[in-house]
TrEMBL record:
The lineage of its organism: Bacteria, Pseudomonadati, Pseudomonadota, Alphaproteobacteria, Hyphomicrobiales. This is L,D-transpeptidase. The active site is at residues 163, 179. Keywords: Cell shape, Cell wall biogenesis/degradation, Glycosyltransferase, Hydrolase, Peptidoglycan synthesis, Signal, Transferase. Belongs to the YkuD family. It comes from Bradyrhizobium sediminis.
Length: 226
């Protein structure tokens, strides 16, 4: 009997371990979210369509925090944006975030939304980067990419955005001027799922608590399960 119990204990431990090590299932953003105008714009993109590193590809994952379904949560430490779903799930996207001195954190809401938005560099950006135009019309070569979600606190525009990018090779890095960048395909998908007024929680630096540590995942270590 003791031998049987020991075998059953080993089996149970093995099942628990295999469950913990279950691989994340990565998915492309659904083609159905692309409008004809989106397909036309993306077809003439002049930037390199670099494949995003696997840990930052779109995935449906278990979600352990308590934000309400429909909320957006940004974990800048690990370069992830979560769209919280019902039933303890979330859609997770890889992102580019701001350098630490430029990054936004706090609670905001989506105060405005735009498709293929024009870009108007702020005065601060003009100070840091010489030679920029006053504005850039919307299009696939625009730094804001395919979509923009404008973050507000109260009635004040924070000047921070969640938007697309024509530099997909930097997804997973901290190089932006503070905004949260996604691939154009991913931001189109996110845009199709949210509405004006959506709550956005951007976690403070060093407060990211994603179950997967993206830096370890890029090095081939860490637990990719959720």
């Amino acid at each position: 009997m003791s031998s049987l119990r020991a075998k059953l204990g080993i089996l149970a431990a093995g099942l628990m371990l295999s469950g913990c090590m279950q691989a994340t299932t990565y998915q492309a953003a659904p083609e159905a979210t692309l409008k004809p105008a989106d397909k036309a714009q993306l077809a003439k993109a002049r930037y390199a369509k670099v494949a995003v590193a696997e840990p930052f590809r779109r995935a449906i994952v278990d979600y352990h925090r308590r934000e309400q379904p429909g909320s957006i949560v940004v974990d800048s430490d690990n370069h992830y944006l979560y769209l919280v779903q019902d039933g303890g799930k979330a859609i997770r996207y890889g992102i580019t975030v701001g350098e630490e001195a430029l990054a936004f954190s706090g609670i905001a809401r989506v105060g405005n939304m735009a498709e293929w938005p024009k870009w108007t560099p702020t005065a601060d950006i003009h100070k840091r980067i010489e030679g920029l135009p006053a504005s850039v019309p919307g299009g696939v070569d625009n730094p804001l990419g395919a979509r923009a979600l404008y973050l507000y606190q109260g009635n004040r525009d924070t000047l921070f955005r969640i938007h697309g990018t024509n530099q997909p090779e930097y997804i997973g890095a901290s190089i932006s001027s503070g905004c949260i960048r996604m691939t154009n395909e991913d931001v189109i998908d996110l845009y199709s799922r949210v509405k004006q007024g959506t709550i956005v929680v951007v976690l403070d630096p060093k407060q990211g608590d994603s179950p997967q540590n993206s830096k370890m995942a890029l090095q081939g270590g860490g637990n990719s399960a959720f």
